[in-house]
Amino acid sequence: MKIKHVVLSKSSTGFYFDDQKAIKSGKVTQDGFFYEGKPQTEGFTSVRQKGEAISVQLVLENGVVGYGDCAAVQYSGAGGRDPLFLADDYMDFIKEHVTPFLIGKDVSTFKELALEVDKLHVNGKRVHSAIRYGITQAILSATANLHHLTMAEVIRKEYNITDQLYEPIDIFSQSGDDRYKAADQMIISRASVLPHALINNVETKLGYNGEILKDYAKWLVNRIKTKKVDKDYNPIIQFDVYGTIGEAFNLDINKIVDYLIEIEEIVKPLELRIEGPVDTGEKQSTMEALRDIRVELEKRNSKVLIVADEWCNTLEDIKMFADNKAGHILQIKTPDLGGITNTVEAILYCNKLGIGSYVGGTCNETNISAETTTNVALACKAMQVLAKPGMGVDEGLMIIKNEMNRVIAIANARTKW
User: How do the residues of the chain divide into helix, strand and coil, expressed in percent and rounded to 5?
Assistant: First the structure.
């Protein structure tokens, strides 16, 4: 069955684009939900600006439609990523260069065409990751709708994943700056991994000696202990620190590990994960630092798990980090990988090497991209998936959990029919 029409429309995302470089520089201030100061990353006209996406609808010969959203991460242009993705900048580009390629293509299967899209180059340059992300979502959706299957079932069939039992995956809820109120929402909802906490500035959020995060960790553990309604509720604690620990301790591995073990003692008996403890501003040295932190933690018999994020953007990056065991868990930041075939391969590669596969992404996605990547995570048995889009907690958790439960219910039921 072939693609007859490609229909594009502008869409809104669940959050905003933020200039990470400007925020981490300490030269901007927060005024409510605004950042005051000059942007430092190319393409940004303000430090925080509205999130945008381009929705793609692939209309097949028989009228079946496949849906996908071209979306990019909150911190676009940072950590080696593709530049800021604005709808007005790329709508005509897709119409001129991508639509003609898609018309007449067969979507009876997903993988072959999706791989072609992910390799698309225009004028010698690879197509923006957000475009490859959205188009391949739409192809997967079209193939699934054509065959009356879930997207997860299509993935399993085409990648020869033989274990047909679908099981729930831990969902990581993210708080944004409202880390106290958000934590309450997560506890009420029994989020399995929390709270994110957005520790992206040493002075205001970590503390020059890490004291601010330590105080928050103490508050959080006490809050869980005193407010949980289920005695069996023992969530995993995961803080995203955006390299600030490395910055505060001058990339001294021993001092960083000393500090991580202090946080570990605070949150015990809950499991602790630290995302992005260091960011050197460059891929190779960031990878090496994460590797060395992992080695030192294990040498000291610590149970802290390190999650790699910045500079671990593409499928090739993920394989490099996994091969070097640069952390215990790798975030597969789905929009950065481009075609979702790369997300599939990244999960399977991590699983093969015994590295945790965290299907992440960004608050700056849409419900369509979130539901699609949930299907991919389920199909490939990822370790963890991000609650997205948005920073409101409840909305992202609802979208991911509901899609997960729907897919598990219908796919498992279908094996019995």
Answer: 45, 20, 35
